[in-house]
Design goal:
By secondary structure, this protein is mostly helical. It has one domain: Serine Threonine Protein Phosphatase 5, Tetratricopeptide repeat (Alpha Horseshoe), CATH 1.25.40. 88% of the residues lie in helices and 0% in strands. It has helices spanning 2-60, 63-76, 81-93, 97-110, 115-127.
Length: 128
């Protein structure tokens, strides 16, 4: 009788162990998902801050500042579409037509949704 009780307790122990492992695994997955969402939110906020800063510099006519910051960003993230877009616009306003054209074309390649706006600038560049 005692042997049967011990066997049943061992079976219950194994079941509880499996349940605890499953709960722990679920908690780890949930935690990792939370961290991933936090990082993605931070990245979006950082990109929005970058875009807002570049717009402000455009409004102030600080094209060299834009060029410096965008080049710095492109060192870390070579295909950062916003940095390429603002670099193209800064060169456009500085009337450095070849550089502007190069970056507008790269912006179209990286972000096809910007093609219409970029082609408008490219058309104006061709008229210069």
């Amino acid at each position: 009788m005692e042997a049967n009780i011990l066997k049943e307790l061992e079976a219950i122990y194994r079941i509880l162990f499996v349940i605890m492992c499953a709960v722990l695994f679920w908690a780890i997955i949930k935690g990792l998902t939370w961290i991933q969402n936090l990082v993605e939110g931070f990245k979006k906020a950082w990109d929005a801050w970058f875009d807002n800063s570049m717009c402000k510099y455009l409004d102030l006519g600080e094209y060299n500042k834009i060029i410096d910051e965008c080049k710095e960003k492109l060192k870390k993230y070579p295909n950062h579409s916003s940095a390429i877009w603002f670099l193209a616009k800064a060169y456009y306003y500085k009337e450095e037509n070849e550089l502007s054209k190069k970056y507008f074309e790269k912006a179209i390649y990286l972000a096809p949704s910007w093609e219409e706006d970029a082609k408008e600038y490219l058309g104006k560049l061709n008229e210069r």
